[in-house]
Design a protein that fits this description.
Helix content is 0%, strand content 57%. With 346 residues, it is mainly beta.
Length: 346
């Protein structure tokens, strides 16, 4: 399926600059440029009544993937550098996460505990995970340090039907194995290894249902134990983690911080309106920030809007970043459109 070019945006609509405080960035990092030319493509999914496209990954600007939990025949979308095409894979049940290492080594995690691998030509079901007799596992995310060291994370429903039974599986020595998650409750949404201290950090969203409020816990995982290092105490959007240049960054309310000597150190105070608690980046001076009304960028000195969304209730769900090109997965609830904003540096 070819997508429709929705709009063409030249650099860039907003010019207001925001000053930043407490920014101990790495002076060896190159400040990110902002002179992008933007195109937005639509991914057309029939009978799409929800934000189906949630995950995006790519090995290069001519090999970008996105997955949909909606219409089966359009559940896998791929960009070849020219067009987006969408298709379904027989027996692949609701692909909900994607990660890879090259154009011929891509993994997808699905509902029902499935893990699939793409070899450049075909998709193969390489694992079907069950835990405590449950096969109703949904893998919300995947990440790997190398092709032989990969994690898939998610959850299945508890006795109240809330997705609070945590699941982490790890590919090591050629075998997918379940990690003991005793002590964790909630969906394991993100898991990354930090290059500096070698620790694994993860974000777990716990649903309260009618009994308590939703919350987010952030843990470090060392020596097969989970140590809680942060609790949001309120709605999960106030805490997040991101991997930038092999370093884990924590988003704690309006602060972007790193973990140094077992302490949180503030990198940036995002003391501006409309920050939506999610970031992606190439280095400490080249960070993209999700806003409720667009996309902003931090270059080590200030924050500037790159995109302004004219539709309300527009949300950025993911990104794929390369040296001179960027892709952002965007959903417009008012128009029910899944969009890929593709930016190229001039």
């Amino acid at each position: 399926m070819k997508t429709t070019k929705l709009l063409y945006i030249a650099f860039i609509t907003a010019t207001i600059l925001y000053s930043c405080k407490d920014n101990p960035v790495n002076p060896n990092d190159t400040p990110g440029r902002r002179d992008y030319v933007w195109v937005a493509d639509t991914i057309k999914i029939p009978n799409n009544y929800s934000a189906d496209l949630r995950v995006i990954w790519g090995s290069s600007p001519t090999d970008v993937w996105a997955t949909s939990s909606g219409y089966h025949d359009k559940s896998i979308s791929h960009f070849n550098g020219i067009n987006w095409t969408s298709y379904g894979v027989d027996r692949m049940n609701v692909p909900s996460s994607i990660y890879g290492f090259s154009s011929n080594n891509v993994y997808v995690g699905t509902g029902g505990g499935g893990i699939w691998q793409f070899n450049g030509s075909n998709w193969t079901n390489v694992a079907n995970i069950t835990k405590d007799g449950h096969s109703d596992i949904v893998f919300d995310n995947m990440w790997g340090d190398s092709p032989v060291d990969i994690y898939a994370t998610g959850a299945y429903g508890d006795t109240n039907g809330l997705a609070n039974e945590s699941v982490i599986v790890h590919l090591a020595k050629g075998k997918w194995e379940i990690i003991n998650t005793d002590g964790l409750k909630g969906i394991v949404e993100n898991l990354y290894k930090n290059n500096t201290d070698g620790k694994v950090y993860l974000r777990v969203i716990k649903y309260g249902g009618l009994v308590s409020i939703d919350s987010t816990n952030i843990y470090e995982y060392t020596q097969e134990k989970f140590n809680k290092i942060y609790n949001s105490g309120q709605d999960y959007i106030y805490a997040n983690i991101s991997l930038i240049n092999k370093e884990v960054y924590f988003i704690l309310e309006k602060k972007i911080v790193k973990r140094i000597n077992n302490q949180f150190q503030t990198i940036l105070n995002v003391d501006i309106p409309n920050f939506y608690y999610n970031i992606w980046g190439r280095n400490s001076q080249d960070i993209f920030l999700t806003m409720t009304d667009g996309l902003a960028h931090y270059n080590g000195s200030n924050i500037e809007y790159l995109l302004n969304f004219d539709k309300k209730r527009t949300q950025i769900f993911g990104s794929a970043l390369f040296n001179n090109e960027v892709f952002f997965l965007v959903y417009e609830s008012q128009t029910n459109l899944n969009l890929i904003y593709h930016g190229k540096l001039k």
